[in-house]
Amino acid sequence: MQSVKDTYQRITDTIIQQLEAGTKPWIWPWRGNSRRSATPLRASGEAYRGINVVMLWLSGQLAGYDENTWMTYRQAQELGAQVRKGEQGTLVVKYGTFTPKEQEADDRAIPYLKGYTVFNVEQIDNLPDRFKSPAEAAPIEPVPVIDHVETFIRATGAKIAYGGKQACYRPGPDDIQMPERGRFLSEVHLYSTIFHELGHWSGAKSRLDRDLSGRFGSETYAMEELIAEISAAFVCADLGIEHDPRDNTATYVENWLKVLKQDSRAVITAAAKAQAVADYLRQFSSSTG
């Protein structure tokens, strides 16, 4: 059985390898079609969370899968299906806690992380029809304003001002500065940027209370940028829209790689915090619905 450290390292090595190859694994690869879910799903229909979303997006992107449901070898067998010979599975993890027998019941439980393998439904033969979704034609023209996305953004209550020369969250006045909407190449770039900055906005002391004091080039800064980038991808997936990160990614990737190579837990921590950001932003929309 592999140790927790080995599992962290396997995940981190996979992310580093793809970043160095120019692939950003948190980009939702199903561009221009509306599958049943952009977020990876278990066989039960439950959505994966945290680092598992990143790992399955990466695997799906590299393999070119259209479907986004994953299951274990045993689950496929229980459905009367069979993973095709030679297919390679994808590593995901399960979080949990346990209390050693020698400890008292009220002692602190010890967290654990266990890796296991899943397969995309496109790697499996003879699955029930409910695991297949028909492809939909990609829209020919982009839509400049997407109503449900605008509603989601307004629900957060964040102060967003358009007209600046760059996109940034300002902790002092607690607002987000954005260039004019017309300067963005598409609604994809616009919303990806807004959700990146809303990721930073969520980290204010009165909200999720993350350390936003890091300067460019520092480990703290790189970690916060990684959280904001992944959370933007998560939120875009939740809303069913494409995510395309902001430019100047080469410099950011260089900083991310530095952090990931120093700490094998960094990307898992970033994904967990990014999931917390997505959950936090989603609650505003739910409370107004």
UniProtKB/TrEMBL annotation:
Domain of life: Bacteria
MF GO annotations: single-stranded DNA binding
Domain Polyvalent protein metallopeptidase, chain residue ranges per copy: 148-273
Signal peptide per UniProt: none
Residue ranges of every copy of the N-terminal domain listed in the record: 5-119
Keywords, sorted A to Z: Plasmid
Pfam families: ArdcN, MPTase-PolyVal
Coiled coil: none
Name of the protein this chain belongs to: Antirestriction protein
Organism: Pseudorhizobium banfieldiae
